Amino acid sequence: MDLDAYVACPECDLLHRRQTLPSGGVAKCTRCGAALYRSPRNSLDRTLAMAATGVILLIIANCYPFLSLNVEGQFRETILITGIVELYRQGMPLVATLVLLCGIVFPFIELAGLVYLLLPLKFDHRPWRMLTVFLVIRAVGPWGMTEVYLLGILIAIIKLTSMADIITGAAFYAFALLSFVVAAAAASLNADSIWQRLTVRQ
Question: Which pTM was predicted?
Fold first, then answer.
């Protein structure tokens, strides 16, 4: 039996044979009605566009001023990684490492990995080490927490407004937009279509 030709219902475990879906279609369990898999419209193109946009936004967020603080005439400009460096200097290297990984590194790996996979697939080419890259993307995806990092930054801004004049830079808006782009890329990705192109041998 070809196991790739079947899918189990995530709710009741009923086994179904995979069927080719029309664009935008949803396969549902015949027993409980739970969604088995989807075929989003233009999944590859939309996910590729979102991933490429996310990579660009992440680069902008790390290269341009993030916040500027004016405290009693003293002007200080910060970048995205400034908070992580301060956590390390204040004796919290573990927290600094987690923030760096979850807020910057893992989202970059996910987005760059998607571009690496989907760009060749768009032109009907199989990228090198496709399975390995896809498994890495699936592993780091849940750990990418740009929205949590952004929420922490917003809370810090609210607390600092009473002590200093805050000016948001281009990097702040790029990172805020990045949070939505990462979520949109994950939502538009049709992982099932990628799995179907994979084989055990690389």
Answer: 0.76
